[in-house]
Predict the structure.
Amino acid sequence: MKLLKHIFILLLALAPVFAIAQDEEAISFVAKVSKKKLGLNERLRVDFEMNKDGDNFQSPNFEGFTVVGGPNQSVSHSWFNGKRNFSKTYSYFLAPKQMGTFTINQATIEIDGTVYKTSPITIKVTKAIDIPENPNDPDYILKENIHLVAEVSKTNPYLNEPITVVYKLYVAPKAGISNFRETESPKFNGFWSQNIDIKGIRPQNGTYDGEEYRYVVLRKAVLFPQKTGKLEIEPLSLDLTIDVPTNQRDIFGRRINNQAHRTITANTRTINVKPLPQQGKPVDFTGAVGEFDFNVTATKTELNATEALQAKIEVSGKGNLKLFELPGLKTPSALEVYDPEHEENIRTNLAGMQGKISDSYTIVPQYKGKFPIPPVTFSYFDLKTETYKVLSSKDIVINVLEGPVYADADNNLPTNNNQKQAVVLNDNQFAFIKTKTNLKPIQQETFFNTTAFWMSLITPLLAIPLALLYRRKRDQRSADVVGNRLRKADRLAKKYLSEAKKALGQKEAFYIALEKALHNYLKGRLNIETTDLSKEKISLLLEQKQVDNNTIKDFLKLLENCELARYTPMTQVAMEQDYNKASSTISNIDKQIR
C-alpha cells in the first residue's frame, strides 16, 4: 500500500510537467506569403503566425524588398468543443526593389522561455506585369486568381495504354467563388473512357505556378486510346459565380462583395498516341496491352460419356481487360463443346483496369477413350519492357472411362472445327423388312355439317359479346381510381408483410418492411399519404372511420416499435409478436372500418 501511495504522489507531481511538455509540442510559429512569384510592380504580404502569445518578436531584414506597410498586429480568440484557440499574427507589406530571387529569412520569437524560428521562404521577382486600373475587376480576378486545369498523366502513350485525366479548379486565397456549374462536359473522341466516381467535392491545399492555392477535383477519368496519331481531349467548361470586393463595408466593418458570372474553360490537351511495334508481333495477337497472367483449367479430367465438365480460359492482371478477345478452345470432334459463357470481374480506378476475364466452356464427351485438348496461347504487349510476350497453357487430357467406342480412337483425333463426327456401326444397322402387309382402306369423312364445323362457325360469334363485356369491365376497373389505389395498397401491404416475415431475425430489414406495410395499408384504406401525418392525425382519421380505441392503440404501438427499432435492440420473440400483432390489427381494421 505504501508503494502505491508513493507512485500516486509521484504521478501527481509530474502531471504539470507532462502538461507543459504537451503544450510545448503544440506550439507553432510559421511564416506565410501571399505569393512566391510576383512582378516588379506588385506587392507581397508576409504573415508571421503563432498559436501562443510570446515576447521579443524579431522580424527578418527583408533584403531585396522595401517595407511599405507594417508590422500590423492581429489577435484572434475562439472556443471549439470546450477548447480555447489562440492566434496572433504580425503582417508586413513589401515592394521588391529589383528582379531576381530573394529569401525571406527567419523571424524569431520567445514563448515560455524558448526561442522559436520560422523557415526561410524563397521569392522570385520577375519583370513588371500589366495590372488593370481596377484589380477588383471580375475578368482580372478570373485571369489571375482562378484556373481550371486538365492534368494528364501521360501525353505520348501507346495504343490501348491507359492514361488518366483529372480536372482541378484552383482558386487563390484572396479570391472567392460562391457557386459553379458545368456548362460543357469534356469529350474523349478516339478514346475508350470511364469516369471515376468522386465522393463529394472537398477543398484541398496545393500550389499552382509556385504559389499557394486551394483547389477541388471536379472530374477523374481513365482513357484508353483506340487509334494512333494526335488526339485532342476537348475541354471542360464551367459557369462561375465570382465574389467581387467593393469599397463598401457592413456595420461590422466587413467588406461587402458583389457577384459576377463568368465562364472558364480548361486547357485543351493533345495526346500523341504511338502505334504498337510490328517487330515481334505474334500472329494471334488480339490487342491486349498491360501485364497479365494466363491460365486454362478443367473442372475434371476423368468422367463417363454424356457427363459434363467445364474448361475455363482465364486472363488476369492489369491492362485493357475489356478491350480484347480471349483465345478460343480447340478440342477433338469427339467432345461436344457448347458456346462459352463470358465472365468479367474488373475494377477501374486511376491506375487503369485490374481484375480478370474468363470464358467457360461446357464440354460433353460422346465416346470412351482419351482425348487431348491442345495447348492454348495468349499474347500481349508488355508496357514495362515494351515487348510482346506469349503465354501458353499445358496439355489437358480428358479420360472418358465408360461409353461407346470411338471409330478412330486409335488414330489421330481431328479437332471440332468442322463439327463432323465419325459414324459408329453396330449389329442392328439394318432391320428386317416385311414382304406381306395387312392394309385397310381409310374411310373418308367430310368436314361440312359436322360438329367441329358448327363449333368453329359459332365460337367466334360468341366470343364477340364476351370480348365487349371484358373490355367494359376493364375500362370500369381502370376508371375506378379509388378502388385501384385500394387494391394497389393492399398488394403492397401484403408484399411488405411477406418481406417482413422473411426477414424475421434481421432487425433493420424486418422493421423497414413492417413499417412500409402499415403505411401502405392506411394509404389505401384512408386514401391519404401517411408519411406526412402525425400519430394524432392518424388516430383521428381512424376514429372517424369508427375503428375502436384498442385497435387504434395497437396500430400506433406498431408504428412506435418500428421507430424504436432503429435505436434499440429487438429480440426474435419481439419481432414475431409485432408481426402477429400487425396481421391481426390490419384484419380488425378491415372489419370495423366504415
In short: The chain has four domains: 27-126, 138-273, 292-400, 481-592. The CA atoms of residues 515 and 559 lie 7 Å apart. DSSP finds eight helices and 30 strands in the chain. Residues 481-592 form a domain with the Four Helix Bundle (Hemerythrin (Met), subunit A) fold (CATH 1.20.120).
